[in-house]
């Protein structure tokens, strides 16, 4: 399987689909998922001549599970390690949720200074801090994060099933069409990752 080794020795798994001379698009996944969450989009873009790359963050998917580096600085550096290893240029970065925060940090710290980034697309991206403070009154109260951490510690499998069956896709809304395959795929990706990497960080 294809891996890139980061400067601090972490092996990052990635997928690289489509023609190697195509315009590169890199996809950055949300919490607590993996590169597998982008398969439909990867097929779509690869069939249209783009080179599409999706990596799993450290501790997620098939990337190595390590107890350290679960913060945006490391995530951004890891993503850029893939870009450098593949010598990608004129890259379009697309990130969802936590992946959006990763994109913002990666482009600002690495992509733009190196001249390798063309565009960044943030899809429901997390802000730099989600915690409610005096300076961020619209943030979430600490009790929300404490509740997530407690639920993960008590029964991670059930928590991931509850999240994917309900609020993540809006399946808890009246009249929603529920797709069991989507729920199971989300659950599978969450459980594949490391419990050390997944507690929400505010």
From TrEMBL:
PANTHER family: AB HYDROLASE SUPERFAMILY PROTEIN YCLE, MONOACYLGLYCEROL LIPASE. The keyword Hydrolase applies. This is Non-heme chloroperoxidase. InterPro entries: AB_hydrolase_1, AB_hydrolase_fold, AB_hydrolase_sf. Pfam families: Abhydrolase_1. Keywords: Hydrolase. The lineage of its organism: Bacteria, Pseudomonadati, Pseudomonadota, Alphaproteobacteria, Acetobacterales. Residues 24-171 form the AB hydrolase-1 domain. It comes from Gluconacetobacter sacchari DSM 12717. It comes from the Bacteria. SUPFAM superfamilies: alpha/beta-Hydrolases.
């Amino acid at each position: 399987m294809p891996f890139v080794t980061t400067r601090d020795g972490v092996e990052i798994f990635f997928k690289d689909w489509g023609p190697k001379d195509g315009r590169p698009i890199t996809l950055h996944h949300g919490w607590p998922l993996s590169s597998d969450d982008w398969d439909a989009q990867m097929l779509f873009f690869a069939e249209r001549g783009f080179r599409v790359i999706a990596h799993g963050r450290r501790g997620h998917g098939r990337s190595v599970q390590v107890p350290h580096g679960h913060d945006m600085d490391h995530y951004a550096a890891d993503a850029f390690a893939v870009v450098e290893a593949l010598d990608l240029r004129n890259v379009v970065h697309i990130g969802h949720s936590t992946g959006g925060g990763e994109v913002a940090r990666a482009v600002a710290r690495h992509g733009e200074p190196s001249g390798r980034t063309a565009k960044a697309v943030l899809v429901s991206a997390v802000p730099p801090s989600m915690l409610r403070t005096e300076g961020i009154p619209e943030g979430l109260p600490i009790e929300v994060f404490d509740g997530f951490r407690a639920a993960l510690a008590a029964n991670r499998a059930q928590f991931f099933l509850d999240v994917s069956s309900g609020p993540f896709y809006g399946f808890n809304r009246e009249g929603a069409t529920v797709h069991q395959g989507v729920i199971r795929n989300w659950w599978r990706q969450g459980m594949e990752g490391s419990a050390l990497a997944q507690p929400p960080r505010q």
